[in-house]
């Protein structure tokens, strides 16, 4: 056991108190919180539908489908399987295109680590929509608390999809099963020991196993819940041993001793760009240039593009991405794709432009430098693009983006997220209508989740 910092025991007790005695009725009486939980849920369902179109996700779902038994839960592809494997498929699909919800106060995707496990458990056990929403809020609260308590060093060495996802899944599933804060914390103490050391560099190089880490975390979350219930428990200091002693993450003393604010899910953000969020400010600056001083110019007139960026993006420097994942985590590719096309729709960051000659050529002319001095949050993920042209004076064009849309100071409005869902899911036309009903009304709260998700994903 590593040394126990002052405040650790009190921090755990406070986290348990926050979720103790919570019921759907008491939690969801807060209309703002209920609508936000519904928005996170439906946004991630839409991301699953988009991700489920990829050949690798289809193959994964087929490998888990049983030719004998119909299975407990439904995947976004319409196949059925064991609940933990279904959660793995849906989590891989949700994160595949970088369109899932995220959390800015720490490097954590609270929805991705809770929603797939919750909906698979709810589908298998006949839980209601309001129970699903409550489990998501509580699982989100727990996993983001650990993310804040053990902030990852910059630049990132390990990927949060690997290190944190078992915690969110275990907390959410265990609450759905027991409603007990004590049991949730016991499952979390097991889940932290199942944390995976997935290298962040795999995202940059494009190793597609990265897209499976949140799914693996969902499976491990189910396992942690089962193990804790069977008496195979962990230690209350397990997170210190794993994150501080093992991974070398410093504990945040302010988090351990500070007062608790509002529910963490209210600080979640929604994305419209199908690329790593760390690239978003740069791609918005690139779009500004294409719509302004670069309009009508050929990219052959560009001699160099200098991207001043923030520490989380320093490693995103792959100029030869070989997979769409690598492209989404490549600042040279994302910036070049926007400068060449003047677009920022999901196709811009997909397979279509990965090997485009013009984009590939421009990628080689993109150079990353630190953005200095780095501003404080919410402007802690800024970008400045400086484009130098090939003309005789060497004309220099510049655009800044201090905070991309979706950030705390530029949040997507509810209707914008609902429009995003509709735009992403024409193949499942029921989903957009259901999303609006679930978010804006309570008329489906008491309905079985299994009926709703079957209708939502019907093609």
Automatic annotation (TrEMBL):
UniProt domain MmgE/PrpD C-terminal: residue ranges: 273-426
State the Pfam families in the record: MmgE_PrpD_C, MmgE_PrpD_N
Picking any one GO molecular function of the record gives: lyase activity
Q: Which Gene3D superfamilies match?
A: 2-methylcitrate dehydratase PrpD
Stretches assigned to the MmgE/PrpD N-terminal domain = 14-241
Q: Which InterPro entries match?
A: MmgE/PrpD_sf, MmgE/PrpD_sf_1, MmgE/PrpD_sf_2, MmgE_PrpD, MmgE_PrpD_C, MmgE_PrpD_N
Q: What PANTHER family does this protein map onto?
A: 2-METHYLCITRATE DEHYDRATASE, 2-METHYLCITRATE DEHYDRATASE-RELATED
Provide the family line. Answer: Belongs to the PrpD family.
Put simply, this protein is called: MmgE/PrpD family protein
């Amino acid at each position: 056991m590593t040394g126990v910092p002052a405040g650790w025991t009190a921090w755990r007790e406070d986290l348990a108190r926050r979720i103790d005695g919570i019921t759907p009725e008491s939690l969801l009486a807060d209309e703002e919180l209920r609508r936000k939980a519904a928005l996170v849920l439906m946004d991630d369902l839409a991301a699953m539908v988009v991700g489920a179109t990829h050949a690798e996700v289809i193959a994964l779902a087929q490998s888990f489908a049983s030719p004998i038994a119909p299975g407990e839960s439904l995947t976004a592809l319409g196949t059925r399987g064991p609940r933990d494997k279904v959660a793995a498929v849906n989590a891989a699909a949700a994160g595949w295109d970088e369109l899932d919800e995220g959390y800015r106060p720490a490097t954590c995707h609270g929805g991705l680590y809770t929603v797939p496990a919750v909906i698979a458990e709810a589908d298998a056990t006949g839980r209601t929509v309001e129970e699903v929403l409550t489990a998501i809020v509580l699982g989100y609260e727990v996993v983001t608390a650990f993310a804040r308590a053990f902030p990852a060093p910059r630049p990132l060495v390990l990927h949060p999809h690997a290190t944190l996802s078992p915690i969110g899944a275990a907390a959410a599933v265990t609450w759905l099963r027991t409603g007990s804060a004590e049991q949730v914390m016991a499952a979390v103490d097991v889940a932290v020991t199942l944390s995976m050391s997935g290298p962040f560099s795999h995202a940059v190089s494009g190793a597609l196993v990265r897209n499976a880490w949140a799914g693996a975390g969902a499976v491990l979350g189910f396992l942690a819940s089962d193990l804790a219930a069977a008496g195979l428990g962990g230690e209350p200091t397990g997170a210190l041993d794993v994150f501080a002693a093992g991974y070398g993450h410093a504990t945040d003393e302010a988090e351990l001793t500070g007062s608790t604010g509002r529910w963490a899910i209210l600080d979640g953000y929604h994305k419209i760009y199908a690329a790593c969020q760390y690239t978003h400010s740069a791609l918005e600056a690139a779009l500004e240039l294409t719509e302004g001083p670069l309009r009508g110019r050929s990219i052959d007139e560009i001699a160099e593009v200098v991207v001043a960026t923030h520490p989380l993006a320093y490693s995103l420097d792959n100029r030869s991405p070989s997979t769409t994942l690598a492209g989404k985590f490549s600042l040279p590719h994302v910036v070049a794709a926007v400068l060449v096309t003047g677009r920022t729709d999901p196709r811009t960051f997909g397979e279509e432009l990965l090997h485009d000659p013009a984009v590939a050529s421009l990628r080689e002319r993109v150079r990353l430098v630190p953005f200095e001095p780095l501003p404080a949050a919410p402007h802690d993920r800024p970008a400045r693009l400086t484009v130098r042209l090939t003309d005789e004076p060497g004309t220099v064009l510049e655009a800044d983006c201090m905070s991309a849309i979706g950030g705390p100071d530029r949040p997507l409005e509810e209707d914008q997220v609902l429009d995003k869902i509709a735009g992403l899911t024409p193949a499942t036309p029921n989903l957009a209508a259901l999303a609006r009903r679930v978010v804006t009304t309570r008329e489906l709260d008491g309905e079985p989740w299994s009926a709703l998700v079957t209708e939502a994903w019907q093609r």
